[in-house]
Here is the input.
Amino acid sequence: MIQRIFNITKDVEEGSIFLFGARQTGKSIFLEQQFSNCILFDLLDSDLKLRLQARPALLFEMLQDKPENTLVVIDEIPEVPELLNEVHRLIQRKKLRFVLSGSSARKLKRKGYNTLGGRATPCYFFPFVSAELPDLNLDKALLYGLLPPHYLAKNPTKLLAGYIDIYLKEEIKEEALVRNLDNFQHFLSAAALTSGEIVNYSNIASDCGVSVKTAKSYFDIISDTLIGYMLPAYTKVMKRKVTQAPKFYFFDVGVYNYLMKRSALAQGTPEYGHAFEHFVLQELQAYVAYTHSREKLSYWHTYNGKEVDVVIGDAKIGIEIKSAREIMPKHYVNFKEYKEEFPNSRCIVVSLDKLTRRSGDIEIYYVFDFFKKLWNKEIF
Here is the structure.
């Protein structure tokens, strides 16, 4: 069994938490690993689910005599959201602590269920990261992604097909989040075409045959259900006009490739480069969440087309992501204008060039050297 790097022991020592993560990231197994000696309720157990749905107060009755600070884990709390009132009572009256997991908070908020009024801190769980896979197969990860069932499977393609279908049926259709599922399916394909690009709502709406307002609401849905996320533009400027619109990325590069109907990736192609960028950014997103970093991720893009792929914090670090096997000055030419704007920023190139080195004030890292330093907290 692969040991996950995320450690939420300190978080639960300080109180209750919501653990959110897309389906099949491995939340249930992770909770069993971290809290094997705790009281655990698995709401995917049909009998338990039915009984608690019929009478949520059973939870209070079962736990009311437990000592203060007893830790209780409820896996898949959105399956029986009515339990949140009982959780609230147990936190307030009995001083118990809870770990509550689910794929997103959207269905809880949308239906007006109790979200504990700030009494549970949200945490986020991700697919595998490099620090969990010492023998990570890069080509497999770039094509099929790092969701545990997909990365570990011998033939992930069928699993990816089923995964997309499950999300459409369970997260979208059954929750009645959209009126026209066919339009939403077209939207997912259009979103994949623009993944890693600056979002143009008008163009996407036109491609899908929906209004701009509907296209924006679709992006909200996939962000809220953790299928994707927006990378905002870095907009603090001194001299140059910069793009204000965000970029969109799917949460896992394998999902992105499947929607793009890619069955292979060839090094040196734009498709490989896009997947590599997506992969590195996916790792950075997980690192920020797992380490509770206060630094925000963004990107920098000027009106004259100069771009830096990732900006960390208040322009503390700029990162260019290149899939080239030999990095040359042409690969980081955009840093020239970026450094004129932010002279104190650290500039890093992450690539497939195995010769990690410094060229002037530009740090060039082989991707696995970068990941090692990242998880050792030597980058930020």
Notes: The chain has a mean pLDDT of 93. The two ends are 29 Å apart (CA to CA).
